[in-house]
Structures are given as structure tokens and as C-alpha cells.
Design goal:
Number of domains: 1
Structural class: alpha+beta
Strand content: 35-45%
Number of helices: 2
Distance between the termini: 46 Å
Number of strands: 11
CATH architecture: Sandwich
CATH class: Mainly Beta
Low-confidence stretches: 16-43, 155-163
Largest sheet: 6 strands, antiparallel
CATH superfamily: Jelly Rolls
Shape: globular
Length: 163
């Protein structure tokens, strides 16, 4: 039996999880987590992170599913960083160059393609592959409740947000 899912099927599953999850995290807490992520690293040139939705997972106590969009201006990039938990990324528009410590060398992902960042890995490169066109992606995190979603630098570890 073939149990593999297409990228579109994964996106549908993730969006359904976001829409139908029973428990909800207060927006103020989620905003604080994102702002903490911004404050904990120097802002990359041309990246803009916006909250889509965040829900506690009732079937996985202690874990929260959070979706954000990351928009890159032409030539825009994020600084090297780590994420709390695991991240599924789906390129919405343009082309994103990404390199993760656990998944191999840098690769360019086009609109409609996706990649995965395992828990504990480092996001070494995250940037718009074009110097002339914008690019965007949807990032879906599964992390501990209250975790700071993004931390900067090579030596820092993922920490829980206290806000």
C-alpha cells in the first residue's frame, strides 16, 4: 500500500488542522512569541513574518501548531537561525533558497514545492533566490506550547518564551 502524500495533500491536511482544531491559543501570546523571535535576532534584510494562525493540539498535549507567512523582498534573506520543534515549509510564490543542517546542501524551491526542517536542526540559508522578484512561503511549526519559534545564531538553543 502506497501511503505517500502529494505536496498538495499535505497542504490541505495542514490547513484543515488549522481550521478545525478545537483549542485556541490567545492571540496576544502568539504575537509575543513572534515578536520575541524578531527581538532575539537581528532582522534579516527583506524578510517579513506574519501570523496566520496558532492552535494548541488537543490530541497532542503540550504541543501547538503555528502557521506564519514569510515574505521576502527581491534579494531578501533571513539570518542563520533555529526553530522550536519541526517546521514544514510550502513555497507560495517565487523561489526560496534554503539550506538546513539536517537535510543537506542549499537548494532552490519553487512555488508549489515544500521542504521540512527537523527539530533541533539549524536553518543555515533562507533567502529569496531572485534579486528582482519577491517570494513567500508558509511555515507551519509543531512546537512546545509557549515556545519561542525562532532563535538566532549558531550557538543558541531553542528556548521557551516566558511571555
Amino acid at each position: 500500500m502506497n501511503t505517500s502524500m502529494t505536496k498538495t495533500q499535505w497542504l490541505v491536511v495542514i490547513m484543515l488542522l488549522l481550521m478545525f482544531s478545537a483549542a485556541s491559543m490567545p492571540l496576544m501570546t502568539v504575537s509575543a512569541m513572534l515578536m520575541g523571535a524578531r527581538d532575539s535576532k537581528s532582522k534579516g534584510t527583506g524578510d517579513d513574518v506574519k501570523m496566520v494562525r496558532s492552535e494548541k493540539l488537543p490530541n497532542v498535549p503540550g504541543k501547538t501548531l503555528t502557521a506564519v507567512t514569510v515574505n521576502y523582498a527581491p534579494g531578501g534573506k533571513s539570518d542563520e537561525h533555529q526553530h522550536a520543534g519541526s517546521v514544514f515549509a510550502y513555497v507560495l510564490s517565487g523561489q526560496i533558497r534554503s539550506e538546513n543542517s539536517a537535510t543537506g546542501p542549499a537548494k532552490v524551491y519553487k512555488a508549489g514545492e515544500s521542504f521540512f526542517e527537523p527539530a533541533g536542526s539549524k536553518h543555515l540559508v533562507s533567502e529569496n533566490a531572485s534579486a528582482t522578484e519577491p517570494a513567500s512561503l508558509l511555515a507551519v511549526f509543531v512546537a512546545d506550547d509557549g515556545a519561542e519559534l525562532t532563535t538566532s545564531g549558531k550557538s543558541q538553543s531553542n528556548t521557551a518564551a516566558s511571555h
